[in-house]
């Protein structure tokens, strides 16, 4: 047992840190999903590896007709269905073909962006960390939180968030009722603070 102040890492780093192909692929995934650093990517990979490992172990036990393995498989499928990583008709082979994108799609940050609550995947992360997002009635500030399927429809802005106002410039951009150039023009045309003071 280690020191509770220094918990064991929940991910593993690549064996060969300077592989160009892997680094390029990781860079693309990080940009697509707005990840802060490689650690978040490796944690998602560790989650996927854990799921695959369970599936492989169960596959070997099911071949010898182990009744406990069938029960464990149903529990695994139920959990993955709950997080919408797989569909209700999926099988053991479908679990083994899962990719990291299947896991990353269930992050709160990704779902906020997919639900058009933010203009970019990076802005979605900022909204979450700054406390503008509600999940199932509670404020959540963890972008990497895995969202269950029944909670997905409950994601919205907090009541005190300025984004909850339909007239907010960002909301207009998201809904497509105004162009970005118009918002920038309005900011440029707005009187500066010094000019307002002089007019007073």
Describe the protein in words:
With about 200 residues, this protein is mainly alpha-helical. About 55% of the residues lie in helices and about 5% in strands. Strands 2-1-3 form a 3-stranded antiparallel β-sheet, with no helix packed on it. Helix 2 runs antiparallel to helix 3 and helix 6 (about 110-115) packs across helix 7. It is globular and about 60 Å long.
Looking at the structure, what is the overall shape? globular
User: What is the count of β-strands?
Assistant: 3
Instruction: Report the biggest beta sheet as strand number plus sense, adding barrel if it closes.
Output: 3 strands, antiparallel
Q: Which class do the helix and strand fractions yield?
A: mainly alpha
Topology:
Elements: H1 20-33, H2 38-63, H3 67-82, H4 92-96, H5 100-104, H6 108-114, H7 121-129, E1 133-135, E2 138-139, E3 156-157, H8 169-175, H9 180-189, H10 193-199
Antiparallel strand pairs: 1-2, 1-3
Helix pairs in contact: 2-3, 6-7
Keywords:
4% strand, single chain, mainly alpha, three-stranded antiparallel beta sheet, 10 helices, 200 residues, 53% helix, 3 strands
Short description:
With 200 residues, this protein is mostly helical. It has 10 helices and 3 strands, in the order αααααααβββααα. The protein has helices spanning 20-33, 38-63, 67-82, 92-96, 100-104, 108-114, 121-129, 169-175, 180-189, 193-199; strands at 133-135, 138-139, 156-157.
């Amino acid at each position: 047992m280690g020191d509770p102040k220094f918990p064991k890492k929940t991910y593993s780093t690549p064996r060969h840190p300077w592989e160009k192909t892997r680094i390029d692929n990781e860079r693309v995934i990080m940009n697509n999903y707005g990840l802060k650093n490689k650690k978040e990517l490796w944690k998602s990979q560790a989650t996927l590896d854990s799921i695959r490992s369970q599936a492989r172990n169960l596959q070997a036990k099911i071949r010898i007709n182990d009744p406990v393995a069938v029960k464990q498989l149903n529990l695994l499928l139920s959990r993955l269905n709950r997080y919408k990583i797989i569909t209700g008709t999926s099988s053991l082979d479908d679990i083994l073909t899962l990719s990291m994108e299947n896991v990353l799609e269930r992050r709160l940050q990704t779902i906020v962006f997919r639900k058009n609550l933010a203009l970019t995947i990076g802005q979605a992360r900022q909204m979450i960390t700054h406390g503008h997002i509600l999940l199932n009635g509670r404020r959540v500030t963890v972008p990497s939180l895995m969202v269950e399927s029944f909670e997905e429809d409950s994601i919205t802005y907090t009541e005190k968030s300025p984004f909850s106002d339909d007239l907010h410039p960002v909301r207009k951009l998201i809904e497509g009722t105004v162009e970005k150039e118009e918002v920038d023009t309005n900011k440029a045309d707005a009187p500066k603070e010094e000019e307002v003071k002089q007019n007073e």
